[in-house]
Amino acid sequence: MSAEGARLLVRDLAQVVSAAGREAPLRGSALGAVDLLEDAFVLCAGERIEAVGRMRELGPLAGDVVELDGRGLSAVPGLVDCHTHLCFAGDRVGEFSLRAAGATYEELHAAGGGILSTVRATRAASAEELRGAVDRHRGWMRRHGTTTFEGKSGYGLDRDTELAQLEAVRAAGGVPTWLGAHALPPEFDDRDAYVDFLLADVLPDAAKIAEAADVFLERGAFDAAQARRYLEACRDAGLTLRVHGDQFTESGAIPLASELGARSVDHLEATSDAGVRMLAASDVTGVLLPASALFLGRPMPPARALVDAGAAIALATDFNPGSAFCDSLPLVCTLACTQLGLAPEEALAVCTVNAAHVLGQADRIGRIAPGYQADLVLVDATDWRHLAYHLAGDVVYTVVERGSVAWERSA
Ligand code: NIG
Ligand code: FE
After folding, report:
1. Residue 214 — φ and ψ, nearest 5°?
2. Among 127, 129, 195, 185, which Cα is nearest to 157's?
């Protein structure tokens, strides 16, 4: 909408809110500290935020300025979804029915369904179809205010499909994460042999596309020794490390992530008090995925204990066709406030600043402050907390990405 070089002025906003300060990741009491301006404006110049302030401080603007009317709306930073599996073909609605009738996620996986059923569909899709799927899913996420997203591979488990997934995420502007060690594909019967294959045949090319590597460290997936071997090789290839850990069982994910200097360990539904203490004493961010716990009827992660112990946490959707068919970070914020014991201010900080930290971008996204990328969500309420308060509500009115309107609700 804003022409190249023109400035975008979002004016007369009821509120503008952003995590206070410039630090990342935020921990402890700093998580709840926000800068809140009322009757305010945000001025974007090109792809960056030029100024934020109260309307009464807004002087005359020279030159070409596109104006957006913010009356009745509040602005929050563009939301950052730092953990998704959005590149997949097919769906698992049949398994959803089986789970509703009592089957568990782990039983379906052990019987060759679950992740492997999405692997079959994803392998059968062309590279063009995978790009189309990512674009479609990315569009769903944008309508809920996601302006930056990560996307994992892990539904190919062969060289070509894994690389095609990473390419599709990159082509859509996402942050690609190589999740080669997600499950054992049917053509292998030995997990160590599969890890050998991944490291010899896929890692050299995956490392050219991906920014991070991830492993599913869990009963029925990969054990700590296999995860260590995979992650060490990925680290040596220059990738940032992530771990899916403590989803069903505590299998050593937090000690391994701490020792290897991983950026994050994600899930944590099964984390004990000792795990909470160890994570809090580390530089690893705990990425909490309450939509996945909700969707599988599993316990929620110990978010309050983690924050109170001083751990850095982030929130994400885990968007995928099996454990979390959920593309909405506002819904995840609602779960954070109702199920995880976080205040709305804490929920906002962890799906903006701390999620940006997980993606290594906290110096340029996640805040509404001069110099940051001009990514904004205009919430359809005069109090920004409706973002979390309105359960599954249609709260997003306009999404601004890099200083241009990327989506707006039609009248
Ligand atoms: O984060 N737990 C492992 N991987 C995904 C689910 C993938 C799937 O079920 O397709 C998760 O929950
Ligand atoms: Fe996941």
Report:
1. -140, 155
2. 185
